[in-house]
């Protein structure tokens, strides 16, 4: 049975809501593309959910839709496709709607992978499937009020973590301060039934970072994870960059990663020395702009490459205390990246760059399930999850102590070596220009 209807769009102009059937993927893409451009987001999302309910046994509520969809494995794919499309186009403004629809998709994935049998029961049964990954763990997220950090906070909370949402609330270049955005995330988590507190300290300030860690421990009684996500941009070509632009970016990214990690690791070291078992995680945020290199971002790229190195070294140092350290290089469309070319991408590509797609790997890395994974740099986006492999020794010859005899040998080494990766991660440059 196909369901066709109309929902209000913009200033009252109607738009056809396509059939939700075997061609759900294409239909929902069309729906989302049309609706995402309007102010009638909530109406459109609610209408689509009602159509899903009618299609799956005439359920008209969100919970009914979730329940019915889970009873029939053959229909779960259609539900999952709708959930994916709605999420990608940011149509789910209702916290309750987003949480329930994510639960449907998570439950579907579990069934598809034969991890659990289909759930037949109340909403609480669905929620329990996805709420245990970080259950009871206390996690700090810096830069947690907007974009990628906000998605980290929400998904961690959905998976049972108690979240400290840190955000200075400044502009993209780091100027200004406003605790309001962090409070909004905390309120959103509370509306979902989770626990969270806001923190407005500057993580690049030594004492501010200490206050942040102390607040987590004093509020929730422990600390299990730190997600270092705070960052700013002050892009400029090298020949035009000012000292202030360099210093500000290095301070927020590098020191803003070091300081919270330092205070948290000191806490975990003391616990370990006291004989307590520690299973903690630090997740840092690097970037392909650093690990691969992007012109116009020498300050940002140097900081992000430094964070990748920091991650590997810290992982080796902290393993003895039960602390894992990893990094994620996100590919997402946010206010930080919208004018770097991503904002000009196609609508489908923009949907795949939604910051929500970074949160799953970060949530997993913060969980006890990630035990044994440390010192790695992941790339994540709506299109892929990958490992970024680090520097390794390439072609090698015996030492030459006469600079006049090095030329031919050095050029041959360069010819034999693999090229440097470009922003896509594929070989790009670094060869000999003959």
Describe the structure.
An eight-stranded mixed sheet has the order 5-4-3-6-7-8-9-10, sandwiched between helices. A two-stranded antiparallel sheet has the order 1-2. The protein is an alpha/beta fold and 434 residues long. The protein is globular. The chain contains 15 helices and twelve strands. α1 (24-35) runs parallel beside α4, α3 packs across α4 (73-88) and α7 crosses α14.
Which helices and strands occur, and which strands form pairs?
Elements: E1 5-9, E2 13-17, H1 24-35, H2 41-55, H3 62-71, H4 73-88, H5 95-112, H6 123-130, E3 138-142, H7 147-158, E4 162-166, H8 180-191, E5 196-199, H9 206-220, E6 225-228, H10 243-273, E7 280-285, H11 288-293, H12 298-318, E8 323-330, H13 347-352, H14 359-366, E9 377-380, E10 385-387, H15 407-416, E11 420-421, E12 427-429
Parallel strand pairs: 3-4, 3-6, 4-5, 6-7, 7-8, 8-9
Antiparallel strand pairs: 1-2, 9-10, 11-12
């Amino acid at each position: 049975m196909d369901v066709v209807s109309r929902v209000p769009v913009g200033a009252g102009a109607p738009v056809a809501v396509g059939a939700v059937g075997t061609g759900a993927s294409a239909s929902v893409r069309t729906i989302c593309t049309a609706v995402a451009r309007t102010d009638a987001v909530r109406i459109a999302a609610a209408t689509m959910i009602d159509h899903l309910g009618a299609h799956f046994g005439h359920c008209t509520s969100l919970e009914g839709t979730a329940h019915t969809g889970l009873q029939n494995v053959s229909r779960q794919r259609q539900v999952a496709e709708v959930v994916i499309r709605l999420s990608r186009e940011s149509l789910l403004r209702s916290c309750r709607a987003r949480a329930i629809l994510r639960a449907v998709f998570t439950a579907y994935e579990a069934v598809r992978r034969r991890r659990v049998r289909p759930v037949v029961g109340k909403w609480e049964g669905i929620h329990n499937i996805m709420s245990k990954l970080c259950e009871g763990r206390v996690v700090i997220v810096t830069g947690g009020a907007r974009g990628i950090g906000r998605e980290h906070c929400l998904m961690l909370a959905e998976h049972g973590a108690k979240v400290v949402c840190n955000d200075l609330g400044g502009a993209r270049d780091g100027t200004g301060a406003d605790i309001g955005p962090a409070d909004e995330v905390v309120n959103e988590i509370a509306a979902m039934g989770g626990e969270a507190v806001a923190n407005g300290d500057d993580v690049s300030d030594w004492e501010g970072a200490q206050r942040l860690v102390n607040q987590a421990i004093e509020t929730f009684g422990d600390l299990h994870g730190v997600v270092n996500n705070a960052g700013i941009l002050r892009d400029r070509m090298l020949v035009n960059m000012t000292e202030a632009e360099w210093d500000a970016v290095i301070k927020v990214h590098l020191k803003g990663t070091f300081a919270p990690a330092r205070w948290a690791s000191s806490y975990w070291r003391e616990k370990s020395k006291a004989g307590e078992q520690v299973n903690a995680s630090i997740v840092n945020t690097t970037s392909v702009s650093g690990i691969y290199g992007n012109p116009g971002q020498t300050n940002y790229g140097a900081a992000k490459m430094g964070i990748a190195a920091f991650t590997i070294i810290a992982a080796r140092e902290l393993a003895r205390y039960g602390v894992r350290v990893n990094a994620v290089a996100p590919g997402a469309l946010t206010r930080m990246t919208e004018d770097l070319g991503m904002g000009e991408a196609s609508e489908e590509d923009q949907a795949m760059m939604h910051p929500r797609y970074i949160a799953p790997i970060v949530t997993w890395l913060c969980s006890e399930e990630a035990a044994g994974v440390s010192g790695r740099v992941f790339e994540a986006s709506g299109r892929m999850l990958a490992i970024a492999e680090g520097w390794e020794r390439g072609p090698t010859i015996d030492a030459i102590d006469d600079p006049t005899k090095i030329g031919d040998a050095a050029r041959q080494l360069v010819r034999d070596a693999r090229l440097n990766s470009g922003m896509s991660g594929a070989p790009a440059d670094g060869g000999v220009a003959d």
